[in-house]
Design a protein that fits this description.
The complex is a heterodimer.
Chain A (H helix, E strand, L loop, with lengths): L5 E10 L2 E11 L4 E5 L6 H9 L6 E6 L2 E2 L5 H8 L2 E4 L11 H5 L1 H7 L3 H14 L16 H13 L5 E5 L7 H18 L2 E6 L2 H7 L2 E6 L2 E7 L9 H8 L14
Chain B lengths: L4 H31 L5 H11 L4 H23 L8 H39 L2 H7 L4 H38 L5 H11 L2 H27 L4 H32 L2
Classes of the chains: A alpha/beta, B mainly alpha.
């Protein structure tokens, strides 16, 4: 494997007494798309936020292009951030700004692009996710959930990032819109030649957008491998998860009725 | 079994000190980040409009009725000592030194501090603040800096306007209800007014502007857990800003006027 784009070693994070990540090792090669699956509350979002530097891990090393993320100051962090694009679970569009201002936010604020040109860039990016220029001046709250997701995707790719993160991209969408988003993700990632990490518990989505799947359980990555090997993982935890069974080694903490 | 009083007192003291420390750290970080570029001019202007211009009606109404009631109340008191001529002076000094900045501060805390905490709190729980960071934009510079600057700059202007409107209220009651000679009322107002009266009020206003926006930003930025968390942040922002305004008001007064 070529030198990894993202490299995690022994990453741990606790909130109070709750150990969320207990030693994560993960290497992602340039241009590779890794999907992290796991149940709700298994620490998937925390993992992404640690890599982004939004949450500081308690110990372990996170390297982006060989650069240790913890050593970065404010300026270094801003510079590294330019490599990243992130699609948030709820979209996280700025509701005080119009649709095009949301998409053009990165180019205008961090690259100093002038607004007229940035608007053209925004229209082009919206076109790439299948949205017309007619919604440019609407507010995010005036759009449907699926459209908001697409605008958020357009914003995530607006700066043509080298690395894109997808946080539960299909959650809350109907199956058809979910597939539309999956296809857009695959297209955007391959068009940009970007490295991607997605987190999801939607197996259909995971199979479609990932080259490799890693399963997070109890703060550890208990299995990783190529997508087509997930059905013969010989791992009881993975099997239970991908078939969505209530019975198995993973015990949901539900009180008996 | 009852919890010993000392334990409760200790717990309260610790909680208070922890909060004071957290707020101070937040304030120092915010000021440092605000002082260094980039500056978001459009955001600063937008916030000045929001905090200053849109607060004018509320602050103006508060000021005019305060001035009117001051004139009326001091008349009923002062008439007993035949000291009616001191009324214009009492009105203008109480307004510029105390009531102008404090009442304007409390009204703006309710109007702007609450809105600020709710807006930033919602941005926090919907991950918009994280999104800012991923778009290489420092939330302290983009969200908090412009609000702090706008608060410190616009509150003194608001208070100056409130002073003028308040004096007008007192004058209206004095001249048309209490049968003062209107030129004498205005001359009395101006003659006794000292620079320090107005200046101390404006210094207070700038400090209050900082406290209101700081509390709005602090509670919003640190809000957790959905609608309830945002609601709590809003309440906390208004309550803490109001208490801080009243506390700082005393100490600034002492710094200016205690001999």
């Amino acid at each position: 494997m070529a030198s990894p784009k993202i490299s995690l070693h022994g990453v741990t994070k606790s909130f109070g007494t709750k150990k969320v990540l207990q030693g994560i090792d993960l290497d992602v090669a340039p241009g590779e798309s890794v999907v992290v699956i796991g149940g709700s509350g298994s620490g998937k979002s925390v993992l992404l936020k640690c890599i982004l530097g939004l949450i500081r891990p308690d110990s372990g090393s996170i390297k982006i292009d060989g650069e240790e993320s913890a050593d970065l100051g404010d300026d270094g962090r801003a510079r590294t951030m330019k490599k990243f694009g992130m699609l948030f679970q709820g979209g996280a569009l700025f509701d005080s700004l119009s649709v095009w201002e949301n998409v053009a936010f990165g180019p205008i604020q961090s690259e100093g692009m002038d607004p007229a040109r940035a608007r053209d860039v925004a229209v082009a990016k919206l076109g790439a996710v299948g949205l017309g220029p007619d919604i440019c001046d609407l507010r995010p709250s005036e759009l449907s959930g699926g459209m908001q997701k697409r605008v958020a995707l357009a914003r995530a790719i607006a700066r043509e990032p080298e690395i894109i993160f997808f946080d539960e991209p299909t959650t809350g969408l109907d199956p058809i819109m979910a597939d539309v988003i999956n296809k857009l993700i695959v297209k955007c990632v391959s068009d940009l030649g970007a490295t991607a990490i997605s987190i999801t518990h939607d197996m259909a989505s995971a199979r479609k957008i990932g080259h490799r799947i890693a399963m997070l359980y109890d703060g550890k990555l208990i299995w990783q491998g190529p997508v087509d090997e997930i059905d013969r993982s010989n791992n009881a935890y993975v099997d239970q998860f991908i078939h969505g069974r209530a019975e198995g080694p993973i015990q949901m903490q539900v009180r008996k009725l | 079994m009852s919890i010993p009083v000392v334990t409760v007192l200790g717990r309260l003291t610790l909680a208070f000190l922890a909060a004071a420390g957290a707020i101070t750290t937040f304030a120092v970080h915010a000021i440092r980040q605000t002082a260094r570029p980039p500056y978001y001019r459009r955001e600063i202007l937008r916030q000045m409009l929001e905090i200053g211009y849109y607060s004018l009606p509320v602050v103006g109404l508060t000021a005019i009725f305060t001035g009117m009631v001051l004139a009326l109340q001091s008349y009923t008191g002062f008439a007993r000592f035949s000291a009616e001529s001191a009324i214009p002076n009492v009105v203008v000094v109480s307004l510029t030194r105390e009531l102008g900045p404090v009442l304007a501060g409390l009204m703006v805390a309710g109007r702007v501090g609450a809105a600020m905490a709710a807006e930033i709190g919602t941005m926090r729980v919907t991950e918009q603040i994280d999104a800012l960071t991923t778009l290489s934009t420092n939330p302290f510079k983009y969200l908090i800096g412009p609000r702090l600057i706008a608060g410190v700059v616009t509150l003194p202007i608001l208070v100056l306007i409130a002073d003028i409107i308040g004096v007008l209220g007192g004058y209206l009651v004095g001249a048309y209800k209490l049968d003062f000679n209107d030129t004498a009322y205005l001359r009395n107002t101006v003659d006794f007014l000292q620079f320090e009266d107005v200046f101390s009020g404006l210094v207070k206003a700038a400090v209050f502007g900082f406290l209101i926006t700081l509390m709005g930003c602090y509670h919003g930025y640190n809000s957790k857990g959905g609608a309830q968390g945002v609601g709590m942040a809003t309440t906390n922002a208004v309550v803490s800003a109001s208490i801080l305004i009243l506390t700082f008001n005393y100490f600034i007064t002492e710094a200016f006027f205690a001999r």
